[in-house]
Amino acid sequence: MARLAQELDEVIQQVEERQTELIQLVERLVRFETPSPPARNTAEAQRFIAEFLQEKGFQIDQWEVYPGDPNVVGVLKGQAPEMYKSLIINGHIDVAEVCADESWETGPFTPVVRDGVIIGRGVADMKGGLAGALFAIQLLDEAGIRLPGDLIFQSVIGEEVGEAGTLECCKRGYRADFAVVVDTSDLHLQGQGGVITGWITVKSQQTWHDATRRSMIHAGGKLFGASAIEKMMKILQGLQDLERHWAVMKSYPGCAPGANTINPAVIEGGRHAAFIADECRLWITVHFYPNETYEEVTKEIEEHIGRVAQSDPWLRDHPPLFKWGGSSMIEDRGEIFPSLEVDPEHPGVKALQASHELVLRRTAVTDVSATVTDGGWFGDAGIPAVIYGPGRLEHAHAVNEQISIGQLVDFTKVMLKFIYEWCRTER
Ligand SMILES: [Zn+2]
Question: Ranges for the Peptidase M20 dimerisation domain (predicted)?
């Protein structure tokens, strides 16, 4: 055991000595142009990752989630998988979209290294995290270290547009004793609140000439009709009331007060100026706390808006319609990111914390991400998970997106240690 521990220390040492290779791996991943939208462009990058893992002894499962966007799952079978803990390492290969007019130093997909950082689209979110985890796996493999527990590496598609490649992995049956989502967390151990989008539609079965307006809004007109746009104002007001009520009454440690927002993001409605608007659709984004589910919060909204509608003579007869979530922001204009609560007492969380503290000699911070990641799908599937990755949120999605090489090296060392320790822990 002592020999093994010393052996591991030597491997961890190598991360620093061989950081040029690590940087080259990040650069290699950045050069695959995988922005989403437009998406459907990850096949080459995924093939690269599949081959990388295969060379290290992983069994590869690759399948198309959308044409041109395959998921890759590599499984490194442990030597005694029934007796030792298994681990999922998860990351998304797609990156945030880039616009033609952005002023990058050298172009988003032409990475540059200077002043201790790597610049390029996706380095922080999250090709840096993917590369660090892959490099840790490479070093373990080269050192001839065999793990008794299973190691599963998931490189998924679609995260940036809510396409939930990770949900597809869960549906396909991949489970483990613990999962680490190596997305942007500045090396904090994080849970997250959740997000669900929804459409609220106010609809009249009848259409009316705009000249009938007088009859439907004034005394003696006797026309029981309404503008769907004007009725949506009541719904909007109701949503604001509920949002404020939530902000006042709900809280979660580590989340900014009032982070549980209901954002009226997009509104569409009416036909043209010669009609009374017979339909109005509101697209909302609902943020909720880690200890809430999307089923609960959408039920609260429906009940509250249902009562708002009951208080209006026309809406009572024309109740608003709700359509929640969706499987893609670009295919069906909807998404879900379930919340993820991190149990600080879970052995996986404690082991990752310990690896962080032993390797970096710094206290590990456990808090809540200000954004959402695929981590929620593990929470939803009942797989204990944490978000832990290099890179800072302020750099994610930004022009000249960057990552600190020092932090990338730290992350790789911690992952090396953690993979080694966790997959060697008895069940
Ligand atoms: Zn991300």
Answer: 216-310
Query: Which residues are the active-site residues?
Result: 94, 159
Helices (H) and strands (E) counted in the chain, each on its own, are 12, 18
Question: What per-residue confidence (pLDDT) applies to 1?
Answer: 53
CA of 181 to the centre of ligand 1 (A): 9
Determine the Cα–Cα distance for residues 172 and 290; give it in Å rounded to an integer: 25
User: What is the whole-number distance in angstroms between the Cα of residue 91 and the centre of ligand 1?
Assistant: 8
CATH number of 194-324: 3.30.70.360
Q: Are 45 and 68 in contact (CB under 8 A)?
A: no
Give the ranges where 68-158 is alpha helix by DSSP (H).
128-142
CB 239 within 8 A of CB 264: yes
Separation of CA 299 and ligand 1 centre (Å): 28
> 385-387 and 178-181: which strand pairing?
parallel
User: Which two structure tokens, joined as six digits, stand for 93?
Assistant: 């290969």
Query: What is the Cα 309 distance to its own chain's centre?
Result: 34
Strands (E), 214-291: 262-269, 279-288
Which residues have their alpha-adjacent CB atom under 5 A from ion ligand 1? 125-126, 183
Quickly count: other Cβ atoms within 10 Å of residue 341's Cβ: 17
Whether the predicted pLDDT of 3 surpasses 80: no
Sheet (strand 117-119) strand order: 112-114, 117-119, 402-404
CA separation for the pair 239, 145 (Å, rounded): 56
Burial of 200 (C-beta count, 10 Å sphere; 0-12/13-18/19+): buried
Query: Do 111 and 387 meet the contact criterion of CB atoms below 8 Å apart?
Result: no
Q: Tell me how far apart the alpha carbons of residues 353 and 344 are, in angstroms, rounded to a whole number.
A: 9
Tens-place pLDDT, residues 168-225: 999 999 999 999 999 999 999 999 999 999 999 999 999 999 999 999 999 999 999 9
Task: Please give the Cα distance from 264 to 232 (Å, whole number).
Answer: 11
| Fold category of 2-192+340-422 in CATH | Aminopeptidase (3.40.630)
pLDDT averaged over every residue in the chain: 97
Give me the residue spans of the domains in the chain. Answer: 2-192+340-422, 194-324
Q: Quick one: what percent of the chain has pLDDT higher than 90?
A: 97
**How far, in Å, is the centroid of ligand 1 from the Cα of 206?**
45
Buried b (16+ CB within 10 A) or exposed e, 92-113: bbbbbbbeeeeebeeebbebbe
DSSP annotation string for 278-307: -EEEEEEEEEE-TT--HHHHHHHHHHHHHH
